[in-house]
Amino acid sequence: MHSMQCLLWLNQVFFKLTTLSAKISILLIYYHLFKRANSKLIRATRMMTSGLIVLVVGYYLAAFLVSIFQCTPVSKSWSRKQPGTCIDLDRFRYYTAAMNIITSVFIIATPLPALSQMRQSRPEVTELMGLVLLGLV
Predict the structure, then answer these.
(1) Which 3 state secondary structure label does DSSP give 72?
(2) Which of 69, 56, 54, 51 has the alpha carbon at shortest distance from 20?
(3) What tens digit of pLDDT does each residue of 17-41 get?
(4) Which listed residue, 57, 63, 72, 132, has the most CB atoms within 10 A of its CB?
């Protein structure tokens, strides 16, 4: 049982890092895609992308640290009988899940208006919109 608890703890820690990496990579693609701000909509999309980058990095780095230090001492995270205290893990998981869903929806929705505007001049943008919308699945 001790090793299962340790694996669960490691999963929580590394999930935050991998989610952060995936979301940042998508946002950096958006940032590069909307590099030339030739309309107000493109500028707004770029500003929204920048804001999301700050939000995602800030939140997931904080969640990563909370995951590591959820118990005092840290070893209590995988050794429940050890003396010490832990945060309310159920509440933390619910907040993390909610934030994960919210940031995912924003990441999916952010480029759609600008891509829709670009679609008239570049037909391959329709395919890109389809790929972005696959994130809803």
Answers:
(1) strand
(2) 56
(3) 999 999 999 899 888 888 876 788 8
(4) 63
